[in-house]
Amino acid sequence: MKPAPFDYVAPVSVAEALDTLAEAGGGATVLAGGQTLMPLLNLRMSQPFILVDINRVEGIRGVSHSAGTTRIAAGTRQAAGLADAELAATQPVLVKALSHVGHHQTRNRGTIGGSVALGEPAAEMPATAVALGAELEIHSKRGERRVKAEDFYFGPYMTALEPDELLTAIHYPRWPADTITVFREVAQRPGDFALVGLVGAVQVEGGRIARAGLAWFGMGPTPIKARQAEAALLGRTVDEIDCRAIAELAVADTAPFDDQHATSHYRRTVGGRIFARTLGEALNVRQTA
Amino acid sequence: MSEHAIQVSVNGQRVSARVEARRSLGDFLRVDAGFTGTHLGCEHGVCGACTVIVDGLAVRSCLMLAVQADGAEVTTIEGLAEPDGTLHPVQQAMRDNHGLQCGFCTPGVVCTMAALTADGANPGEEKLVAAMSGHICRCTGYQGIRRAIRQLTGQPQPAGEHA
Prior knowledge:
The complex is a heterodimer. The radius of gyration of chain A is 19 Å and the shape is globular. Chain A is an alpha+beta fold. In chain A, helix 5 packs antiparallel against helix 8. Chain A has helices at residues 14-24, 37-42, 78-82, 85-90, 92-98, 104-107, 112-118, 124-132, 227-233, 243-252, 264-283, and strands spanning 7-9, 28-31, 50-53, 63-66, 69-73, 135-140, 143-148, 153-155, 158-159, 166-173, 180-186, 196-205, 208-217, 224-225. In chain A, the strands form four sheets. Chain A has a five-stranded antiparallel sheet with strand order 4-5-10-6-7. Chain B has two domains: 3-79, Beta-grasp domain (Ubiquitin-like (UB roll), Roll); 89-153, DNA polymerase, domain 1. In chain B, 28% of the residues lie in helices and 17% in strands. Chain B has five helices and five strands. Chain B has helices at 25-32, 89-96, 106-116, 125-131, 143-153; strands at 3-10, 13-20, 51-54, 57-60, 73-75. In chain B, strands 2-1-5-3-4 form a five-stranded mixed sheet, with helices on both faces. In chain B, helix 2 (89-96) packs across helix 5. The longest helix of chain B has 11 residues, at 106-116. The radius of gyration of chain B is 16 Å and the shape is elongated. Chain B starts with a strand and ends in a 10-residue tail after the last helix. The relative contact order of chain B is 0.15. Chains A and B meet through strand 1, helix 2 and helix 6 of A and strand 4 of B.
């Protein structure tokens, strides 16, 4: 299908983009990479009056590193993030998750910020931001604010982003170099949206879990932080961790739904199994069968 | 609804047009520029048939607006063979290995492989095969396409397999 008619503007600066969003009074939609928005437009599930294309905006691409934080400008292409060796070294969990976002062809245009801002519940980037404890840098004509990723998502495609606001960057805290990456997703084909997915990081210090950030995708209306599992892991020695029990706690925090691809029962069952197995492999814990 | 004057280089040829904002790059290539080798399948980014090369990168032309390609260099399937008809190495590999049957998905498949192997690059079999997950082919079962990939990347064909 073809999109419903709309007006199109392509601002060249953040200030100009914010002016347009403010003037549009809620009738505008921001077009970043377009790899999720364009299908919604083509299927007429989204019918904005004005499309604000930020692809020509100066200064919204690139990765910068400072003490303890990695700032990824929202317009950074997913393919650029994947090809960035320094990013792979500083944010291995993020780069691992990026390799599962869409396909080669969609990553060439899709942006990291676009995926974070849209809030597709089965997408990797929102859950990764939640798991790692990222902070979102948001601008509008009214000023700048920061929102924690875990407070950003309300429902499918529903976020804390106001109509006049633009996500300009994501700030990912730098986890220590020996942090363990946790990632697993089950999808029908590579590049498809996950039926069930798990992403996160676990930091072990002196044989004990010092920090854990774990989140689900495809397991509810938003990315879901596995709070109970994180709390249960904290302070435990690696040897005493019962991955199955932790997985049960993690599944207890989810609210999966039935759709044409899988039932909620399937998602809970498979979710629990991949959680236990992936955590076990990550911690190299021997599990009793 | 806004209209925009755009100028796009398509296969080295400058194409100027006035397009509605909602015109996709794929429709622009087919309808306004006359390059009907680009095939639009699903028009929502799933099938990969409409893949073209924009500024050196394989992208889905149904998920990009024509107005966004203003000033860009686009290569479609028509731009790959030599003017004398000599096939592009990717086209030759697909032909040698029966990488196509009905041919509907083929322009997209070839554009993805051509972008990844541009200027003699060899991304390796694994990366090319992974990139094929962005294409749906309902005829070949992908085996001919995989053979074409092995030929392109200099890998031996498994024994007992015939093109």
